[in-house]
Amino acid sequence: MTSYTAAVVQMNSQPDADLNFESARKWIRAAAQRGAKFVGLPEYFSFLGDLRERQDKADDISKRSSQFLKDTAAEFSIYLLGGSIPVPADQKRTYNRSLLISPSGDIVASYDKIHLFDVDLSDNERYRESDDIKPGENQPVVANIESLGILGLSVCYDLRFPELYRTLMEAPADVLTVPSAFTATTGKDHWEPLLRARAIENTAYVFAPAQTGTHGASRTTHGHAMIIDPWGTILADAGTGEGIAIAEINPARIKEVRQQIPSLNHRVL
After folding, report:
1. What pLDDT was estimated at residue 52?
2. Structural domain tally of the chain?
3. How buried is 146 (Cβ within 10 angstroms: 0-12 exposed, 13-18 middle, 19+ buried)?
4. Residue-range definition of the domain harbouring residue 48
């Protein structure tokens, strides 16, 4: 594996799939033009807004999103992480599924979000993902790709559960992907520290595409899509506007940090 350029996209997705596809393709093209071989999209890149509308349209959104990812990855000859899309699970719920697509347009890895965001942030801000989302099986998902290394998949709220990332390190993963739609309330205090912690404790790169701004009537996300190196250094930060964060990924850096601090070899549990 040699060095390569990676990019993570920051979007302000809305309850309009056509506009979201147009925006995603624009940023993917911009990343590819700058030499990116891997591009990551955020959680719910193709639809973010009213939960009931998403549930009602899940089958259509899922099919269109999957085809968009396959076609776009092949068009730009890149590995494309389709952040996440809603995939029908039963009559009332969907899976929150992250897809990794090859430059030939094939699905090489699929992961359904395990941890669901059921929280009470205030009297006016509550989330119950378990009402609408079915959790995936407790199975870690990694993709061993010769040109990129070993990628470990996760989604958003998974970030708060370090034990998941420890299972991904059994491979061990070189890169941890965290496509997200982190709330503005939690993101301002928790997003960067948690991302850097996952990079530092696992001595791995972290690719974190993100949503930003207001989506639909009321949901607001934090932004700051990032790429972080195995030392915990932020290599690129998209800030709060739509755009991309892009950086060179150096496999030698992983080896170097793991030699300096061989914490993965010192685990006793």
Report:
1. 76
2. 1
3. exposed
4. 4-265
